[in-house]
Amino acid sequence: MPVVDREFVTALPKAELHLHIEGTLEPELKLELARRNGVDIEQDTVEDVRATYDFTDLTSFLAVYYPAMEVLVTEQDFHDLALAYLERAAADGVVRAEIFFDPQAHTSRGVPFSIVVDGLWSAVQEAPSLGVDAALIMCFLRDMSAESARETLEASLPYRDRIVGVGLDSDERGNPPEKFAAVFAAAKEAGYRLTMHCDVDQDDAIGHIATVMDEIGVERIDHGSNILEDPALVAEAKQRGIGFTCCPLSNSFVTEQMKGAEITELLRSGLKVSIASDDPSYFGGYVADNILALAEAQQLTREEVVTLARNSLEISWAGDEATQGWLRRLDEVAAQG
Ligand code: ADE
Ligand code: ZN
To answer: For the chain, which domains are there?
Structure first.
């Protein structure tokens, strides 16, 4: 018997902190954008699109993920993509969404940086009308060069006030965090908050986690559950209040399981673990689906589910005033029946 139901999970105010906007491209919207832009994607139905969702690890996922983006061309496309996500997020009780975007996946296809940011930003500005406070986090693609990341950082500076932080994503194999140490130092200097992916079960995952904590100085780690391999790092992350954004349904697609036991152990060790959906249109669920899947698989208590939501708000980059308001609402929901 699940200890929490969807109604309760939805009612909890929560922040979604690990969400790639390109990974919210649902098949229906993909087909609509392909038609709108005259892009031949060789797929005519939702079933055709879903038939391409054939992946077993991060690399094979990314091989499907990047080509799908070719339907995103205009400012309106990026706006529509982000607004569709924000509507789904609002329905799941998300009060704060910190949205990853991958400028290089678009500029490398000839779509200007300004088109991407202007489109996403117009949706971010509409988010409060849905009851969501939204922000953008720019990710560098780690399988591209450090020079390309540096150019992307430069391109972002005129938009500095629209982007709260920077992250690092894409294929981790052979692309350790230290490759981007100088770019992240420059981003920090420019006032950006820092997070980085440490994907699950990568080669030298624990070495990457040590580097992002001790050399790069991130505030959050995206995924990061391999930290359990080193109890001293777990203790350090706890002491420093480092945030973790774990994505159970995503894990079950790119590894053999959702890593529910590991996520739960981190949570019970007192780490600031939050739950998010990563690329929900590919991995079968939005944030409430992820929380429910984990709660059911691990028989989390009601209090633990509340802690996941509380952690997400506490490690968000929304600022104290907004966060305190959401935490008060969280306590009210938690106190009811
Ligand atoms: N880009 C989109 N989703 C990703 C993930 N889970 N890991 C790395 N890069 C990504
Ligand atoms: Zn991710």
So the answer is: 6-336 (3.20.20.140)
Total count of residues recorded for the chain = 337
Residue 68 CA to ligand 2 centre (angstroms) = 16
Nearest alpha carbon, ligand 1 atom 9: 170
Q: Which atom of ligand 1 is nearest to the CA of 169?
A: 9
Distance 89 CA to ligand 2 centre (A): 17
- Yes or no: say if 245 and 16 are a contact pair by the CB < 8 Å rule: no
Q: Are 196 and 212 in contact (CB under 8 A)?
A: yes
CA 39/CA 72 separation, integer angstroms: 10
Give, for all 337 residues of the chain, the pLDDT tens digit. Answer: 678 999 999 999 999 999 999 999 999 999 999 999 999 999 999 999 999 998 889 999 999 999 999 999 999 999 999 999 999 999 999 999 999 999 999 999 999 999 999 999 999 999 999 999 999 999 999 999 999 999 999 999 999 999 999 999 999 999 999 999 999 999 999 999 999 999 999 999 999 999 999 999 999 999 999 999 999 999 999 999 999 999 999 999 989 899 999 999 999 999 999 999 999 999 999 999 999 999 999 999 999 999 999 999 999 999 999 999 999 999 999 999 6
Compute the distance from residue 329 Cα to the ligand 1 centre, in Å. Answer: 31
- Cβ(20) – ligand 1 distance below 6 Å: yes
Structure tokens that stand for 140 in this block = 């560098």
Q: Is 89 exposed, middle or buried (0-12, 13-18, 19+ CB in 10 A)?
A: buried
- What are residue 41's phi and psi, to 5 degrees? -100, 5
Q: What is the pTM of this model?
A: 0.98
Residue 223 CA: which ligand 1 atom is closest? 6
Is the beta carbon of 260 within 6 A of some atom in ligand 1? no
